[in-house]
């Protein structure tokens, strides 16, 4: 068994590449399948309007300069 990538032979490098490729394809497939499949999906913007003005004062906090 090769304990270093530097001393590994060609077949070990090929195994690493194949495992990485399969893992990448699995992650991509999971990401694609996790999406919503609704074709009428639209994004809407929610508008937040300002309310009444409010003043907050407190003297309990310490000021460090």
Please describe what this structure looks like.
- This protein is mainly alpha-helical and 65 residues long.
- The chain has a domain of 37 residues.
- Helix content is 38%, strand content 0%.
- It is elongated, with a radius of gyration of 28 Å.
- 0% of the residues are buried.
Write the layout of secondary structure elements.
Layout: H1 10-34
The chain-level structural class is mainly alpha
The share of residues in extended strands comes to under 5%
Number of contiguous helices: 1
Radius of gyration: 28 Å
Could you give the count of β-strands? Answer: 0
Instruction: Bin the helical content.
Output: 25-40%
Arithmetic mean pLDDT: 80
Low-confidence stretches: none
Biggest sheet statistics: none
Name the shape in a single word.
Answer: elongated
Query: What kind of assembly state do the chains in view correspond to?
Result: single chain
Report the span from N to C terminus. 61 Å
Order of helices and strands: H
Keywords: Membrane, Transmembrane, Transmembrane helix
Short description:
The chain has 65 residues and is an all-alpha fold.
Keywords:
elongated; 65 residues; mainly alpha; single chain; 1 helix
């Amino acid at each position: 068994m090769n304990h270093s990538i530097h001393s590994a032979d060609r077949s070990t490098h090929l195994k690493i590449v194949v495992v990485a490729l399969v893992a990448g394809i699995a992650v991509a497939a999971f990401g694609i399948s996790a999406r919503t499949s609704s074709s009428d999906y639209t994004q809407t913007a929610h508008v937040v309007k300002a309310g009444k003005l409010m003043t907050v004062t407190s003297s309990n906090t310490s000021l460090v300069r």
